[in-house]
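User: ok so my PI wants both of these folded by tonight, can you help

Assistant: No problem, let's get them done. Here's the first:
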Amino acid sequence: MLSIEEYDYAGFLRGFMKEKMLDRLLRIKDPELHKWVADIIRVAEPSSVYVIVGDEEDIEYVRRAALINKEELPTKNPKHTIHFDGYKDLARDRGNTRILLTGGERVPLINTYERTTGLNEIKEIFKGIMRGKEMFISFFCFGPRNSPFTLHAVQVTDSAYVAHSENILYRICYEDFVKHGPDLRYLRFLHSAGERDENGWSKNTDKRRIFIDLEDDTVYSTNTQYAGNTVGLKKLALRLCVNRGLMEGWLCEHMFITGIKGPGDRVTYLTGAFPAGCGKTSTALMSDTVVGDDLAIIREFNGVARAVNPEIGMFGIVDGINPRDDPEIYEILNSPDNEVIFSNVLLMEDGEVWWTGKVGEPGRGINYAGAWWPGKENPPSHPNARFTTSIKYLKTLDPRIEDPLGVPVGGMIFGGRDSDTWPPVEESFDWTHGIITKGAALESERTTAVLGKAGEREFNPYAILDFLPISVGKFTEHHLKFAEKLEAKPKVFSVNYFLRDERGNYLAEKVDKKVWLKWMELRVHDDAGAIETPTGLIPLYEDLRTLFDKQLGKEYPETLYEKQFTLRVPQQLSKIERIWSVYSEIPDTPGILFDVLRTQKERLENARRRHGNFISPHLFAKK
């Protein structure tokens, strides 16, 4: 970003850092790292620097700093804290999140910016931005230690809340940097919350910027505290990871990784991509074992797709979590023994936290907008309120989370928020059909996780559009090419938990996803039959009736099956038209995408000529 004339960066740093902290930094024999840190200090002007190596003293220091700085507030439980982002900073900022490209190259659906202009702009914003603050430097693994999957990262921030969050969410890997020095390639993240007002909220949100520099593997984030804009190794790293995967021939995905138990002792691993608010976390936690709830790096080894979770924590939406539908995560969030950072929930006067779904009634306290009391217009807990905690509290945690070679992927799931088109679960005909008609065609209603109007249906391919640094056409082609290396391609499924009847009522309960998961596990091994429809393969009624009884102990009426799995031809055709229209504006879309969509459209039109607009699954079963 900048350069200083002095070649003796260690000498420069000695004037700004305590000896203990400087020694920690200089143990890493990487002059480029020293130069980068020196450049940041010269421009941002922090009052002190703390280098985190990961011992318990460091971890506790950061926790205390977050409280002292009032970035987090204490609760009745000593291990639970609350962070408030501020009412203008409650979601990812799409408009100000930009991919820096030389020459300002335009990429369809991607918010790009001319690289030199962006770097100059961010340099101006960073001038003096850390004055009077402490700067934290952290070193992380983005994946299991000693794994060929794993990336490395350095986070620099003036927010103890960000540092605290990352200490929970990621593996601290300072010793890797010491061991490998200048030979270690790593991602870089620079963040400042900027000036904070009397509430502790970022004040200059008009200067909120999240700039991703692909050329330098660096992300700059300013004047924001919301974790989606600030926690470097979360969705900011995802963009850099996708780009690295494209160059090196592997996949970086916005996917959970879970294990589903089948007959005998069999465990089948599935990955799943869902836009925010579409059931991703609840699906992961309803699985039999959990490797990861959000991100996945997938590589080919000996012809098999294998996946690792680059994280060891969970940053999930807390809104709606309740003891009936989410018993395990509800217990984790209420346990006095578990470290949790809540964000944008209600902190009541008695020190208890409250969110929508928690047992009990909300009482007077403070929330994301200031003072709150019963009857006040704004909801007590924000719909995008979050929790940050360790994934290792899960009773269902899969021990292979630390396996350097990951787990084999048997299937991929794509799920959106769809009231009228997709059935609850469906299998594609093959990898290419699934990637194109399910992954590349994913849509969802907008939720409160992003700034904008909630409820609008959005195109969100692979549930990753917000985090793509490259064209979605190129990303689709990347998936198709990746599969060419595989001897056994994962099956591809779609799920939809939000299908409604003519009165607007949901046709499935939250717990039903356990049945859909079990059916997919059986299908990976061809242990269950399926009915072929124009859009894919759906379950047989008898198989689902048996699974509902065995898994949930409840009846599954045939009338409900028919409503859920009726082929809605007009809606399916409309979807094809929408997806076709989007990709026709993307020059590097592979031609096979249009071939697959055209063929699916022909199948649907033929079915409509024979059976009408709404076709019972039983008609296809008779074929």
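One down. Here's the second:
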Amino acid sequence: MRRGFSAAFAGLLTASSPAFADGALQPNRAGPASLAQTTRLAGAPSASAAVADRGHQARAPGRIWSRDYTTWIWSAPRKGSKKLGYVRVGASVPLLRREAIVGAGCPKGFRAIAPRGFVCLDRTTALETRDRYLRAMAMLTPGEGPLPYRYALSNGAPMYRRLPTAREARAAEIFFGKAGTFEPLSWGNKGHEKLAEQKLIGADSRAPFFLEAGGAAGRQKPLELVRRHIPLGSMLAYTRAFEHDGRTFLLSADGTVVPADRVRPFRESKFEGVELDQTTKLPVAWIRKNPRPKYRRDGQGFTETGDQWRAKELTRLDGAKAPVKVERIGHRPRTFLRTLETTSSGEPIYIEESDATVVEHRAKLPFSVTENDKWILVSISRGTLVAYDGTRPVFTTLVSPGAGGIPVRGKDHAKMSTTPLGIYRVTFKHKAATMSPEKGEDRSFWIADVPYTQYFHAPFALHVAYWHESFGEGMSAGCINLSPKDGKRLFGWTGPAVPDGWNGVAASKENGQGTFVVVTR
């Protein structure tokens, strides 16, 4: 998250891990199968059994769908038991069986879902998809790529429930200024426009079915045209762009439509870290902000080769060779590190130590981490991350920690924009969820559907930053920003795993423990 936001902004609108109630899973204590049942299962099915099997297939458990922005998955068929995770509106989870289970707080009964947990059948859920709103929102669930949505930066725009006529649009947008113009952002939000492009988004699909004939996601004839406004500097997640009345509109992830000429699309960062193996192993050096020169040995000194490493490029170091220090009369000593790269003539290439951000192998496990644990090591001052499986490093990348640098003891991390030092575990994971310092429809600022968020010390999290690619530099209000590809990779690698259809999952006895996150200076 970006520097300059209030402390509350470090949390999600959907519930984060500290809000979860405690409870216990009640196991199904079915007795052992009878001898007759065991014998039947061991041999060929009888004719009656085959008929029964076909009947079972016809009554397959199916799925249960969410009609609310957060449909909780409970550890037991009882509201108030432990929250294992949640399903996002429009998404569904597979049922283990279709029969209702009586439980407190759910008059229509709970349904057991795969792989675990219980969902209440109430106004927020459905067992079929004939409902207009549900069919509409099912088109807007997050995708599976590094960015689950397409994203844009708002210059101030209405979010329409239905498609407006040209006359309605002029009246609704009169206070937003001329379409296609963009006001400067405040100082604290400047980093949010680093990847924003000043170009018009072109139409690439048709309008969805629910917008036909003046309709909206929730009803055929909505009562009001404008649901709310998306303020200057807030961000939009959308799924498609289409033409209406000679203008391009964007279908937002919440089912509203936004004029494309009042936002700037974000370019997707292609930066990604490097897998570590027998070919690429620690130590390595990252080039962070600016390109840096390559050197070759020239007698007792070093000379530039004329070539450079690019910004955010990794080079492998020769860990067997000691650094070479060159004394310069009247100047500071310069130290050079030998890399595993060579010139066209076979000479080794060197990098000046001050130009490199070196990542070395940490052989000693942190406190409470064992050989059987996965863990993530983040260095605030270096802006680096290494993923370990036990003592084996498997991945490294550049990240953006808090813009405030090294935290000061006694100072509030959120106010100072610092990432807290310490040993933590992932407590809750969200595939995509909106971040804001406020709640409700009249919020003054939000970042829509931040991808692959992993809380480790709420309100601080690892998450994708789709608005910048200044990885290696401090950029956030205390969270650890990742590139889209790195965020998705680590989200799938860490525990707990996110089951089919779930948008969020809590670390727990039932789901599994969260992966360790170790934050150092």
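Residues 1-58 have pLDDT under 50 and may be disordered. Residues 363-520 form a domain with the L,D-transpeptidase catalytic domain-like fold (CATH 2.40.440.10). Good luck tonight!
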